[in-house]
Amino acid sequence: MMSKSYTNLLDLASGNFPIMGRERKRLPRVMTVAGVISELDDDNANSVSSDVQSSIVQDRIIIVANQLPVKAKRRPDNKGWSFSWDEDSLLLQLKDGLPEDMEVLYVGSLTVEVDSNEQDDVSQLLLDRFKCVPAFLPADILTKFYHGFCKQHLWPLFHYMLPFSATHGGRFDRTLWEAYVAANKIFSQRVIEIINPEDDYVWIHDYHLMVLPTFLRRRFNRLRMGFFLHSPFPSSEIYRTLPVREEILKALLNSDLIGFHTFDYARHFLSCCSRMLGLEYQSKRGYIGLDYYGRTIGIKIMPVGIHMGQIESVLKLADKEWRVGELKQKFEGKTVLLGVDDMDIFKGVNLKLLAMEQMLKQHPKWQGRAVLVQIANPARGRGKDLEETQAEIYSSVKRINEKFGQTAYQPIVFIDKPVSLSERVAYYTIAECVVVTAVRDGMNLIPYEYIVCRQGNSISESDSESSGPKKSMLVVSEFIGCSPSLSGAIRVNPWNVESTAEAMNEAISMVEPEKQLRHEKHYRYVSTHDVAYWSRSVFQDMERTCKDHFRRRCWGIGLGFGFRVIALDPNFRKLSIDAIVNAYVKSKRRAILLDYDGTVMPQTSINKTPSQEVISIINKLCGDAKNTVFVVSGRGRDSLSKWFSPCKKLGIAAEHGYFVRWSADKDWEICGQSTDFGWIQIAEPVMKLYTEATDGSSIETKESALVWHHRDADPGFGSSQAKELLDHLESVLANEPVAAKSGQYIVEVKPQGVSKGLVAEKVFTSMHESGKHADFVLCIGDDRSDEDMFEIIGNALNNGVISSNTNVFACTVGQKPSKAKYYLDDPTDVIMMLDALADASDSPPSSDGETGSP
């Protein structure tokens, strides 16, 4: 059944929504592969890709963001536009960390509206002079996309604001989501116009373009693509309230690398992937990766830095442009605390004002001496919540100044206008402490700028004060992205006004040597972890994550935002039923080894009894005298012998091979190295402790093993408890003849020397010793325990137990990393394949199922 989340989106996701505005001519580009590029998302079109890399090798990266790093203004004569670089743009600054010979192109929108009859000329001008490609959004889409979905839904939700009512946060509006999808599609079309798919990298920035990866991946399966989120990513409890939660997650997973500023944000994203998509991450050699249909998506954690060169160059000009001396004279004898924030509901500006008021109350010595200069940059959004926040701030400023103000003294200096970087630098230079009390913020680079400014520029410094020891103090909210990297800052919970007030007092009262030590520590970090360091690190991880793209076989499946790319090793392919039937018919002696759960029985099935269809198929296979058929399972022998009682000639290996029976008329053999089960008295109490502490978990007691199940527990907690339990068991059972292993939602303790691989070895050796070398081997399973069988097959080939001419079909269920050479998608495919083999078998008719001999 189709998810309701796709309602009204099928046309958008398939690229069939009406064209907005007139058709524009495409920008010129160099194609690196042959063929015609048809419309995006056309289900009849193949991805533009090739198994061989392009012969044209040119290092190039396309940076995609909501806004281009250029400033635009109308010419005085109103004829055309003039453009210039926006030196404050992160997109422009990050070039410093990319390889020097790498060409950088930008795709994004402009901050101004350009008439449709000027768009072609503007596009060509920006491409020629700035290597920028503008995405022109129709006015109705722009409003719904940016001010609608981005600012009314994503921005509040990512900052932990839930839409509790129509008047508080607003209800989810599907038309805004449709505009968001449409806008992302327009951005994708502009990228497609200039991309060389096999040579270029694409780096997408921020929450405005979270579904763009799907549009690009659908078109170019092997595209090397990264995404970096510059806002917080909320906890799963918050994110899961978003009606299009899975669509956005799946779109992001079409990237090769997904970047976050802090581990908290990355952890929340990984938790969402686990709880909503069932994906578990792995950490290997310091890198975090998510396996998604054969592709490993890298997770990058790296806070962005500032552009050191820009700040230092402004420092040289600060005295001239803003006359720092005059500011020092204005605040002479005063201790200046500084706040620099956007006028935003999440910046906590009023909490800062209340903390200042509290400090003046609790520490009267600062009355007439301490001044909070609060710079409020213009708001980027709009709405009732913002208006209420502004009114609250103005009211607090007025009240505090009236209460504590004196002649020639106001405790709050509120600057409510745009402030240039050079003007900010002047205030940083005179401020004793910077205070950031945002209740939630993605990164916030204000503390970094302040630290560098307090270090100063030795070239332009002449007075003795500037050339003396450097010092700076920071009071920062624990809820902002830069907080973890500033270990010398005083971290506060901004909601606790009293503790923030005490932190501000502590910061400005601290002894000078301590201020200097903290400043030195911060400056060492900020100066070495600048924006170039950040972009270099992210790009290097993108290169590493994408290095195997052209070695693997890729193809796309799925509709709408369910689209994903399957990436497999060239030697790992889907098992062809025709090929295996052909080999089966030609063979004379066959070994068939079948796992049960997840292979012939779906894992999600509640009733685990095999169907009559499965019984019939296995009986046909067993009835062929050329076949030796085994079910190799972790289940107990009682259950398996009961379920397969109609299959008289079927071999059964129960409990991973601890018990083996060659046919129904033979006795069970014990294959373990030990029959001493005293270890159960040690392991069982430990498992019970974890069962009591983990709701939804249970213990399964087998004859030879104990299994702790956590499939029905909370995914995150169950996984964490499983790791702890495994460590605990390995510790207490270190001297026992058993092995503790983890599997799919289980932790199992079983005797040493017991594995499915040893069962396979036993079957092959028995056939070899009886002079009946297997010339056809089918081994199929779905989980980690079955990998032992696949490995044994390789060893048997090397040892001569299986002839090198033997047709071997080692097959896993599901497309995932495996030692098997083949895969089938699910148990339905497995049964279909086995049915085809059964139809090709030489089975004499029989009513009791006893057909032939093994």
Write a brief caption for the model:
GO terms for molecular function: alpha,alpha-trehalose-phosphate synthase (UDP-forming) activity; trehalose-phosphatase activity. This protein is α/β, with parallel strands linked by helices.
Any key phrases for this structure?
alpha/beta, elongated, 9-stranded mixed β-sheet, disordered C terminus, disordered N terminus, 854 residues
Low-confidence stretches: 1-26, 28-56, 458-465, 846-854
Name the assembly state.
Answer: single chain
Q: Give the overall form.
A: elongated
The largest sheet has its strands arranged as 5-4-1-6-7-8-11-10-9
Family: In the C-terminal section; belongs to the trehalose phosphatase family. In the N-terminal section; belongs to the glycosyltransferase 20 family.
Protein name: alpha,alpha-trehalose-phosphate synthase (UDP-forming)
Keywords: Glycosyltransferase, Phosphoprotein, Transferase
InterPro entries: Glyco_trans_20, HAD-like_sf, HAD-SF_hydro_IIB, HAD_sf, Trehalose_PPase
Q: How is this structure best described in words?
A:
By secondary structure, this protein is α/β, with parallel strands linked by helices. The chain is 38% helix and 19% strand. It contains 27 helices and 32 strands. It has a nine-stranded mixed beta sheet, sandwiched between helices. Strand 26 and strand 27 form a beta hairpin. Helix 10 (308-322) packs across helix 14.
